[in-house]
Amino acid sequence: MINAVTKLLRGQYVHTNNTKQIGKNLYLIDLETGGFKNFIGCYVIKTAKKTMLIETGPTSSIPNLLCGLSELKVNLEDVDTVTVSHIHIDHSGGVGTLLKYLPNAKVLVHPKGGPHMVDPEKLWASSQSVLGFVSEICGKPEPVEQDRIVSMTEGTINLGEEGKLTFFETLGHASHNLSFHENFNNGIFIGDAGGVYFPEFNLTSPTSPPPFYLEASIASLDKLVSYRPSLLYYTHFGKTDDAIRRLRGYKAQLLMWDKIVQSAVAQNKSFEQIVECVLTEDPLMNMLSSFLRGHKIYSKMAIENSISGFVEYAKKVQMKKVA
What we know:
By secondary structure, this protein is an alpha/beta fold.
């Protein structure tokens, strides 16, 4: 196994010192996908009885993930569970590649996502269509063997040391998003249910690519609040405190975007005009605008794709009104 990992890493640019402990039994690996820091993270829960990963990032980041696990002195044979919030390739595209180095690991995923991990061809085609050049940065997913997939929508995993991980559906960003609550630190891994967090600014923005489900997103945020978490763990990117205030703030931001976009669509504004409306009328986006426009990936994902999701949703709403 060590030789196989060495072969994977040889000749590739991998990062070191990209890990840190962020809580009791909890570590964060910055995958530095595409060379970008604070973009995608993999979380590692490590106890005397359990080693598990939450999110793998895309295929292209697996060398950095393996390097991070080495820094944390994780024995790859000890990893028994890999959990993914959903199957978008920036979150879980690397699972098939990673499992080659984790001989004892099973993958926990939403039932709607499992088939696309076994046969990722449609997922890859969809990713190329929606993400464009970002999909090439992430890399094509490799298939996952059916017998290594555990499909669940809710349940609990025993972590040892009186710890447990409770998982549940948080739909909206995708129809197959799961979130995971850990009781060591009272934190929730939210996938993309709570948006994208920018630690440089201590701000969030929506992540709402089409098809986006606003009502489901709002219901998921209410569900997350009901767990009364102290901390949130964003895949994009990092740990935050004051969790309940942030979740409620994100809910208000989604409703604001809906109001802005519904009005703009009703006025038949162009997509470029709608983008300007969102970036100027949402105070948080106004503060993030320069950063997002200048970021190779976020200019596509956090602006173009996210606003497209709201535009598509608004058009569906208005078609129903006409009907």
